[in-house]
Specification:
- The structure holds two protein chains of two kinds.
- Chain A contains ten helices and 21 strands.
- By secondary structure, chain A is an alpha/beta fold.
- Chain A folds into four domains: about 250 residues, no CATH class; about 70 residues, OB fold (Dihydrolipoamide Acetyltransferase, E2P) (Beta Barrel), CATH 2.40.50; about 30 residues, no CATH class; about 80 residues, no CATH class.
- In chain A, the strands form four sheets. In chain A, strands 1-14-13-12-15-10-11 form a seven-stranded mixed beta sheet. In chain A, strands 2-17-16-20-18-19 form a six-stranded mixed beta sheet, with no helix packed on it.
- In chain A, strand 10 and strand 11 form a beta hairpin.
- Chain A is globular, with a radius of gyration of 21 Å.
- The relative contact order of chain A is 0.15.
- Chain B is mainly alpha-helical.
- Chain B has one domain.
- Chain B is built from 17 helices and one strand.
- In chain B, helix 3 packs antiparallel against helix 4, helix 3 runs antiparallel to helix 11 and helix 4 runs parallel beside helix 6.
- The N and C termini of chain B lie far apart (about 70 Å).
- The chains are: A alpha/beta, B mainly alpha.
- The interface between A and B is large, with 75 and 59 residues.
- Chain B: It is an enzyme of class 7 (translocase).
- Chain B: Its main location: membrane.
- Chain B: Composed of six subunits; NqrA, NqrB, NqrC, NqrD, NqrE and NqrF.
- Chain B: One of its GO terms (cellular component) is plasma membrane.
- Chain B: One of its GO terms (molecular function) is FMN binding.
Chain lengths: ~450, ~375
């Protein structure tokens, strides 16, 4: 019986520059990068040395603190370079891809016919565990935990994002197999969030609890789904998986091949060829983005939570979008006067933009002001559907007050739940990084 | 436009980091950002940002104050001339009001912004725009004849003790503008109360009384003004508090732009109405203020101005939604209670708001505690289930 998840608070941002729903095969990427920074908090220990040959699925590094958290190579080729930063911290592991891909054979397994220890062992020993994210803290899942539930959101409500439905359409079989495998990892339910409005094939997926999502962003955020169904308490663990990664897991069970195919929607007004590209997780940006305006910001991910990357850089391991928008490094004369520059969207009513709720906006990266003391109240609550006090939690995180953070619900949130607060708040404070800081404190102090 | 930008960049050059005037950067930035929204781009967090910023928010409040300010100027002149038995033209009245009030605004902004800039430079942060509102509010709630040096002293007290001592904008406990007025009231009571101060140059004219309505009521005198006059504000009083009509226009601007909290304004009015009705029912002998109809309580004195422009100050007010309801309601309630029971100083709204400013964090604490308890209960239930 599907459950409804309906929220009222939030903000639906209509932005220009959506991708058309057509697939295009991305150019074969010459190299891929595995970046430990994409797997938050993971401290890598290298398994292979530079120059080593590897197949797709061979282990590249594992977590220093939990050897079962492994990262395997998405391509076959040669380990070209380990780029290090200050204190020899590993920044990128660059793998040069072969022309023809060779896959390591993990053998076929039907998760429904296997017992849960076998399934779990297979997932973590073959490097699929890296696709499982743990809440609280939003870090790679620990193989020794048993989560109380697993959440997948196939309805992305953030602006200019790839449609999970479209991405998964051709891989339904693998997606179902992945779901079957995930059901073996938890004693509780596997939840799948889908758009309530669409009559999608996703609603026929078996062995999951369907959540029918409706409402503005962040309705489709995992944090919202968890909060509305089984809210997190102290000491509990929940795992989350991106929809496309479920298909990757399923494909590996069905065919024995680790095929880290990543479908990336190229969006944003500055990108010229806006389509869905099929490529590999961690591929070169230039393999799918050739034509874009000068003076642009390239974001691997969406405009609210994505990671800034360079044109000659690499895609974020998990992101299904590559958003290209103009940099806003321009001065605007008297732009702070109310009801001036109404072409810039504002949630507040000091701009006439609220008169046109259907209008699509072109956005850039200008802050539209400067950081100030926290003065205005009540505006954060308008975009926070969870039953928490956002401003008070932000202040507790700034103060590093563990007890307060805990009592105000830090375990229930991750930075992306505060992305809209980043966007709308008058004082221009960086709510996401403040929450991340608070979570880091909790992670080291409480664990 | 480009050449202006170019010129400003030239002027700013000695202030750039590494150059000799770098310390004074916040001051020059404050001036620059009034001409141009800076070209800063997002570096962390969300890559795009809303058009609203603190400048825009504060200027909206200033806009909302303009009707009351202009009316205050006209009324100051008008009250001045009618006590002399003259009937001034609109322009004449405004001219007299402006002659009195503009210097007060200049002093308030000059002294206050000077301090704000000094603190910004000292602490190395950008200048916050909050004083744009405070600096205008302070003269608006003073009697028209107050000496300029008193305005200056009040401003200094409000900014130093009321705000910067607590860490600056966003940290203060009390509303700075009301702190200024409270300072002036307790330090120079003869200039801030009585029946000779509310009309410009009234003390020069013997035998003519320019008492406020509340003053007359406290002295159990007859009121000669009708409800319409009270509402439009053609009565003696502090500069901009008399016209409930103009304040209502301001309130509308604040509410429509969502800059001011409608919850505080509405619950404040409800609170005042409730208290007024209670007194109307009790009808205490010998206290003219208890018989004063409850709806007139809302339109005379500083109540309307206080609840719209002072109580809604987000920094010193309650911050949670439910807290705002309680906070506003209590301001209204206590405001009328103090007004009725304090014959020495019939206007209670200032004291009521300051009192609730102090209690706002406590109100918020209990509202938040409800949320915390819910979370604890959930955890307990979970533990019981698993045990």
């Amino acid at each position: 019986m599907p459950t409804d998840v309906k929220i009222k608070k939030g903000l639906k941002l209509n932005l220009k520059g959506e991708a058309t729903e057509t697939f295009e095969q991305g150019e074969n990427t010459k190299t891929v990068a595995l970046r430990p920074a994409n797997f938050y908090s993971l401290v890598p220990k290298m398994v292979l040395k530079e120059g080593a040959k590897l197949k797709a699925g061979d282990e590249v590094f594992f977590s220093k603190y939990s050897a079962k958290t492994r990262v395997v190579s998405p391509v076959s080729g040669t380990l070209k370079e380990v780029r290090r930063g200050a204190k020899r911290k590993i920044l990128d592991v660059i793998i040069e891809a072969d022309e023809t891909q060779v896959y390591k054979d993990f053998g076929v397994m039907d998760p429904l016919k296997s017992d849960s220890t076998e399934v779990k062992d297979r997932i973590f020993s073959t490097g699929l565990g890296i696709f499982l994210n743990q809440r609280p803290y939003n870090i790679p899942a620990n193989a020794d935990d048993t989560p109380k539930a697993i959440y997948i959101s196939a309805y992305n409500t953030a602006p200019l994002t790839g449609s999970a439905e479209f991405i998964l359409k051709a891989r339904v079989e693998f997606f179902q197999a992945g779901i079957n495998a995930l059901t073996k990892l938890t004693g509780g339910k596997v939840y799948l969030g889908v758009d309530k409005q669409s009559a999608s094939f996703l609603k026929d997926i078996e062995n999951v609890e369907i959540l029918n999502i409706s409402g503005p962003h962040p309705a489709g955020n995992l944090g919202t789904l968890i909060h509305e169904t089984e809210p997190m308490n102290r000491g509990e663990r929940v795992w989350t998986v991106n929809p496309e990664d479920v298909a990757i897991i399923g494909e590996q069970f069905k065919t024995g091949k680790y095929n880290a195919q990543r479908t990336v929607a190229v969006t944003g007004t500055s990108a010229k060829n806006r389509k869905y590209f099929k490529t590999i997780a961690g591929a070169e940006v230039k393999s799918i983005l050739k034509d874009f305006e000068d003076n642009s910001r390239i974001i691997s991910g969406n405009v609210l939570t994505g990671e800034k990357v360079e044109a000659d850089g690499y895609l974020n391991f998990f992101a299904n979008e590559l958003t290209v928008i103009p940099e806003g490094n321009e001065f605007r004369m008297f732009g702070w006067i109310p009801f001036i520059d109404n072409n810039i969207h504002s949630m507040s009513k000091t701009s006439l933009s609220w008169l046109f709720p259907k209008r699509k906006y072109e956005v850039n990266t200008n802050i539209n002001g400067e950081e100030r003391a926290l003065v205005v109240t009540g505006e954060m609550e308008e975009v926070m559907p969870l039953d928490i006090f956002p401003m008070q939690l932000i202040k507790a995180c700034m103060a590093g007050d563990i007890e307060k953070m805990e009592s105000l619900g830090i375990y229930e949130v991750v930075p992306e739940d505060f992305a809209l607060i980043d966007y709308t708040n008058t004082s221009k404070i960086e709510a996401q990084s403040i929450i991340r800081g608070g979570l880091d404190i909790m992670l080291t102090e409480v664990g | 436009m480009n050449w202006i930008r170019h010129k400003i960049d030239q002027i700013k050059e000695p202030f750039e980091p590494g150059n000799k005037l770098q310390k004074y950067r916040p001051a020059i930035n404050a001036l620059d950002t009034f001409l141009f929204v800076p070209d800063h781009t997002t570096q962390k967090g969300a890559h795009i940002r809303d058009a609203v910023d603190l400048k825009r928010t504060m200027i909206t409040v200033v806009l909302a104050l303009i009707p009351a300010l202009l009316f205050g100027m006209w009324n100051a002149g008008y009250q001045h001339y009618i006590q002399l038995g003259e009937n001034p033209a609109i322009f004449e009245a405004i001219l007299h009001g402006a002659y009195k009030i503009v210097p007060m605004i200049v002093v308030s902004y000059g002294v206050g912004l000077g301090l704000e800039f000094a603190f910004a430079i000292m602490r190395g942060h950008e200048v916050n725009e909050g004083y744009l509102v405070t600096g205008l509010l302070i003269p608006m709630i003073m009697p028209v004849d107050i000496p300029l040096w008193m305005v200056a002293l009040s401003v200094i007290f409000a900014v130093l003790i009321g705000k910067e001592a607590f860490g600056g904008t966003g940290m203060n406990i009390l509303n700075p503008a009301l702190t200024a007025r409270a300072f002036a009231f307790f330090a120079y009571p003869t200039y801030m109360s009585g029946n000779k101060i509310w009309v410009s140059e009234a003390s020069n004219v013997d035998s003519i009384s320019g008492e406020t309505i509340l003053g007359s009521l406290a002295a159990n005198k007859e009121i000669t003004y009708n409800t319409a006059e009270m509402f439009t504000g053609i009565i003696p009083g502090s500069i901009s508090e008399t016209s409930t009509l103009c304040i209502a226009i301001g309130a509308l601007i604040l509410i429509l732009t969502k800059v001011g909290s409608w919850r505080i304004i509405l619950s404040g009015i409800i609170g005042a109405a409730v208290m007024g009705m209670i007194f109307n029912v009790l009808n205490i002998e010998g206290n003219g203020l208890t018989n004063f109809p409850w709806y007139q309580h809302i339109i005379v004195g500083g109540f309307a101005f206080g609840i719209v422009f002072m109580a809604t100050d987000p920094v010193s007010g309650a911050q949670t939604t439910r807290g705002k309801w309680i906070y506003g309601f209590l301001i209204g309630l206590f405001g009328i209670m103090i007004r009725v029971f304090n014959p020495a100083y019939p206007e209670g709204i200032m004291l009521s708001i300051l009192l609730l400013n102090v209690f706002a964090p406590t109100i918020d604490h209990y509202v938040i505690q409800g949320n915390v308890k819910k979370r604890q209960k959930r955890l307990q239930m979970k533990t019981v289930k698993t045990a």
